Amino acid sequence: MLLQEELPRGPGSERKEANLHAVNALAPRTKKPIVHVTMISHGLTDYSRSLREQLPDIGFMQEVDKTLRAVRGIATYAQRVAAT
Q: Where in the chain are the domains?
């Protein structure tokens, strides 16, 4: 499952952080991986790195085009495996 959201770069985004923690809590109970996608590429701050460590059950990818290429690669691989 792809969700559009980025990691906060500093304090002050309590609602966003609560949503990220809620998704992280849900992730182990799903049968599908959950990945948050940012629309752009940006560097992480110490704050966002610390928050990322608290969210081990969800993935984060930057840039939509790179994310969709990765998803296409995974789908192609799955199709090849299923065909064998």
A: 2-83
Q: What is the sign of the dihedral through the CA atoms of 30, 51, 67 and 40?
A: positive
Sign of the dihedral through C-alpha 41, 47, 50, 54:
negative
Cα–Cα distance, 38 to 16 (Å, whole number): 13
Is there a contact between 3 and 36 (Cβ–Cβ < 8 Å)?
yes
Closest by CA position to 34, among listed 11, 59, 52 = 59
pTM of the model: 0.79
Distance CA 23, CA 56 (A): 11
Q: Tokens 């990691």 label which residue?
A: 7
The predicted-structure confidence for 23-49, as pLDDT tens digits, reads as follows 999 999 998 899 999 887 778 899 999
Q: What are phi and psi of 78, to 5 degrees?
A: -60, -40
